[in-house]
Prior knowledge:
50% of the residues lie in helices and 9% in strands. It has 18 helices and 8 strands. The protein has a 4-stranded mixed sheet. Strands 2-3 form a two-stranded antiparallel sheet. α5 (164-178) packs across α6 and α13 packs antiparallel against α14 (319-335).
Amino acid sequence: MDAHLSFPQPDLLNNVHRVLTSGDCDLLGIDCADSSSGISTAGFIYTSQHICHQAMAWLRAADGPLEGVSVPFVNGGFFAIRRACYDALQGFPDFIEGWGHEDRFLSTVAHYRGFRVRSYQQLQVWHPYKTTARGTAAQPAAAVNSAERMLMNSLRCGYILYDDTTFELVCEQLSADYGPAALNGGLSRLEHEKAALDEHLSAIGLTPCERNRQMALFFERYRPWLPMVDEALLQQARQLDPQAGLPLVQALPHVLPSLRPPESTDYSVARLFVEAHHLFHSGDLSAAMTALLEGLTHDPDHLPSCRLLTLTLRQLGRHASARMWLEHADRVIRKHHTQGTIRPLACSDQGFRNRHLRHYFWPGLECEVWTDLAMDAAAGSDCQQAMDWLARALTLHPNDATARAAMASLQMGVVPERWASGQGLSGSGAAGDASIGSRRAA
């Protein structure tokens, strides 16, 4: 139990003893209510948003307290464990430094070993929390671990708990959270600890093969309460080629119940964009269009979705709709220009900010949009309008020989030959990447 708890139920320990001696529970979680607000966790299941176990969440499972319900994890604020289970799991692992991870680590290996992990929320303690922006996840108000400790805790736990593929997803999440340099430093340190961690896995009665089998069963059994799995699979689908990534992303939910706006919106937009990207490269343009339009109802200013939609509509021959969305994309781009100053878009701009896409960046997107608008204007015999659009692109790339040649043709009242045949200057840009992971922001 945490040191900063208070106990409103005088018979708590007797009731804990009663449950643990009933023969139906080996690891017991209870209601850790917020001592400041009085808000109870009864009816909620404690879980993790990220596969690296660094974003806690509470998911509603019932209107009242859970009583004897099998759960994926117990909350570390207060839990009880039978001696036989504690000994079999080798107690608290020495490799976890400071606060964090130990509750979900012990819960997971307890499941792997066949022990029963249950929640009895008629039992209650009071626990001080500090609130978060989401309102559903909270962290103890005690000291927060250093970034290095948290990163190493995640790497050590991931190395023991997961197969190689899932561990790679842990590393992907940690790279997004801490940066590649910090992750590489942690992995270097982990190399020197792997022998000891392998010994720990063996000591708790698991071989790598059995661990992998139990991991799959655990994920399957508790999938509705493990948003961390869906988020990790989205990242995996994002980096795969369309043939492998499309069925994976299409099996994912459109909404994660652990998230609240704006993060829930980011997840939905990201999931739909990944699906649309794979559909585009698979040649299913109508389905790609549908997914992109749905995503843009959630976030109309997501520039990669806007641009991919214009390319899709163009290939479908829906030129009027493509122009409408090109003009919309231009309005979004202008929001990033202060006092009318034209500058290249950057991965830090709001139109690319989406954590579930790792802030996926489309280099040169603004010039592609302006060039396509110029081509449309020229097709309508409005050479002056076409030159105005093309001038914006040349402001950023004044030495672009192809664009300069097009401008020269327009100044003579002649539509460039490539445009007359329906080809733009910039091709399909980042849409040419088969894997969305290949151009994510640093």
